[in-house]
Design brief:
Catalyzes a trans-dehydration via an enolate intermediate. By secondary structure, the protein is α/β, with parallel strands linked by helices. The chain has a single domain, classed as Rossmann fold (3-Layer(aba) Sandwich). 38% of the residues lie in helices and 19% in strands. Helix 4 links the parallel strand 3 and strand 4.
């Protein structure tokens, strides 16, 4: 059985507490449960992770590239949080690992502050999901399930 890796970056551990008017009241545990249901529905195992540290995310992207090349991983749903807008290192990791990534944002970043409009992840992502709340994770998993 192939796996879908869901990576969550800085501050996503605060879901449900941090700016609920923007991110909703659901917790990261709620997101994990939703992702598990979606993966079960499509016949995938779920590997769900969160880190506030850029280096951990980079290491996990490298690992994902190896797992995808070995045929064990379908792809990555990646909510990099604020690192989306600042991290060339994450861009380079995704590009270098040649891993299939769906960039995900709970809020519509394009309807928010101007500094959130640019993404270093988008140019190396297969697709971008933004503004659908935590349901965007389900949509991203569905998109990965459709890949050959």
């Amino acid at each position: 059985m192939k796996t879908i890796l869901v990576l969550n970056g800085p501050n996503l551990n605060l879901l449900g507490k941090r700016e609920p008017s923007v991110y909703g009241r659901q917790t990261l545990a709620d997101v994990e449960s939703l992702c598990r249901q979606a993966c079960d529905q499509h016949g995938f195992a779920l590997d769900f992770r969160q880190s506030n540290h850029e280096g951990h995310l980079i290491d996990w992207i490298h690992e994902a590239g190896e797992r995808q090349a070995a045929g064990d991983l379908q792809g990555v749903v990646f909510n990099a949080g604020a690192l989306t807008h600042t991290s060339l290192a994450l861009h380079d990791a995704i590009k270098g690992a040649s891993v299939r990534v769906i960039e995900l944002h709970i809020s519509n970043v394009h309807a928010r502050e101007a500094f959130r409009h640019h993404s270093w992840i988008s140019p190396v992502a297969q697709g971008v999901m933004a503004g659908f709340g935590i349901h965007g994770y389900v949509l991203a998993i569905q998109a990965l399930a459709q890949q050959a």
